[in-house]
Amino acid sequence: MRDPFGRTITYLRISVTDRCNLRCRYCMPDECAELLPRERLLSYEEITDVARAAADLGFNKVRLTGGEPLVRSGIVDLVKMLSGIGGIDDLSMTTNGVLLEAYAAPLAEAGLGRVNISLDTVNPERYRELTFGGDLSRVLAGIRAAMQVGFNPIKLNCVVEKSSDETDAREVAAYALREGLEVRFIRNMNLEQGEFWVVQGGIGGNCELCNRLRLSSDGLVRPCLFSDVGFSVRELGARQAIIRAIDAKPESGEQCRTTTFRRIGG
Ligand code: SF4
Q: Would the CB of 225 count as within 6 Å of ligand 1?
């Protein structure tokens, strides 16, 4: 479907949970962050209904995000349900990689095609510091498992303060080059301030080329990351919520004051 600015919208990003097993400083600094009550999270059947309605409206690309999607139990079953939808020919996931070593093979078997893995540094001390205690060796083991099962491509999402010239970013780039992986640099965004930049190595943040909607973990179809507008799939039904969201897409992002990255999935 086309939005009011002539852009063809074919990509749905789905946040399956606002929970995470890390506390990245720029996303979930506060260890007692307010989490959604479980009954507010969409069930896998509801998520699949939204993806099916999106496919009927010409969407072909679905990405699972969070919080951290692998912390939600039964995630492999959801991948199986989504990979069975006709028209969705690009099913991917963004993960922090901490649990990926165990999940890579069952996810690939269930129909997942590719993964983006968040990696802001390859320095174990820095990693522990940035993620409030995360273990880098588990992520590196997850990346190896993703390579072994043949996810393609495997992209690293590296958040930078200002530029890919920062030490951590250069070291992640060198690691990616050694391992034959792609890397994208994402400048640290601020929802409330409406601060965002085009992803280096991707099209995220390039409003002219925007092709996406987001389904938040609490069941709102959002036309734009930097907007407070959202349409409830539980109130309107999946198809109507998607159509209303496409019709409400802004020409470009402004700011978002009503939710958080971990509920929208970045
Ligand atoms: S800010 Fe909004 S319009 Fe711009 S690329 Fe992101 S989602 Fe699309």
A: yes
